[in-house]
Amino acid sequence: MIKTIFAGILVLILVIACGEKEEEPKPITGAAIAGTISEESVSEFSGKNAFAHVEALTAFGPRPIGSEAYQKSLQYLETELAKLGWKTKRQNFTGITPIGPQEFTNLLARYSPDSDPDWNSSTPFLLCSHLDTKLFAEFEFLGVNDSGSSTGVLVEMARVLSVKNEGAKNVELVFFDGEEAILKNIQSKDGLYGSRYYAAQLDKRLIKPQIGIVLDIVGDPKIPLLIGGDTHQKLESHTRSAASKLNLQNWVQPHAGTILDDHVPLMNRANLAVLHLIGNFSDADYWHEKGDTLDKITPGALENTGKLTLQILHQLTK
Ligand SMILES: [Zn+2]
Fold first, then answer.
1. How far apart are the CA of 191 and the centre of ligand 1, in A?
2. Residue 205 lies in a domain
3. What is the mean pLDDT of residues 58-86?
4. Beta bridge partners of 86
5. Torsion over CA of 214, 216, 218 and 219, rounded to 10 degrees?
6. Is residue 8 part of a domain?
7. What was the pLDDT predicted at 235?
8. What is the CA(171)–ligand 1 centre distance, in A?
9. Ligand 1 centroid vs 115 CA: distance in angstroms?
């Protein structure tokens, strides 16, 4: 009898243990992991540095389609990334918009200090943000949280990753143009211009990426950071375990619904497993308003986003 009880308890323990076992995301295509992203690099991320990049971008003014500030922002990112050993490539294209054909520029970056990267091949991971701000004629829209915050996080991420240069070779940074719709909110044919073009161009690469991580509206500590509902199940589980490891489980919340954003073309057009992390903008009364200014974001929230993303990358490469 006692033996039976012990056996029963043992089975129960095994069931619980298996239920908690973390599953690794299944690689979808062939880009091999180039090196681990160390756990020590997680604490290396500085929210202050990320905030300084957001401040610098904000000083150029609004960055909507065709603006001078967008061009200055591209030059700023190219200069900052070059200092860190990252090579950049502008991806210029013409998009068909409700106001006619428009010119757009995505910016791609790879850690490759000693040579030019092979742009016909891919790293396993894409880390993405949009760089444009939504066009508003009636007021000055600075877009500090939408899209300055995620852009600042990516530049600081480039610094942290290049400290451990082997791991940096796993990541391509992508700054999308034209995420914002020209007319109202993003729809299938208005908005996501940069990510739609980028995803289609991946067809030409001989080696494809496996996973796309898209960050958006990540700098406000007062609004939860949502794991979009169309996030790959295994990436969601990695994100939840990374959040609890960093004691961020109250801030990082799974979201039942899906939000149309740059991850959608990566998922539907390029067949990548995606992770969509986006601040709950419906809780932000300044979203797409004049008030999306520097006082809405904090170095602490940027640091939490950066550390969370690094912890996820660490888990994916260990
Ligand atoms: Zn927006």
1. 10
2. yes
3. 97
4. 111
5. 140
6. no
7. 97
8. 25
9. 36
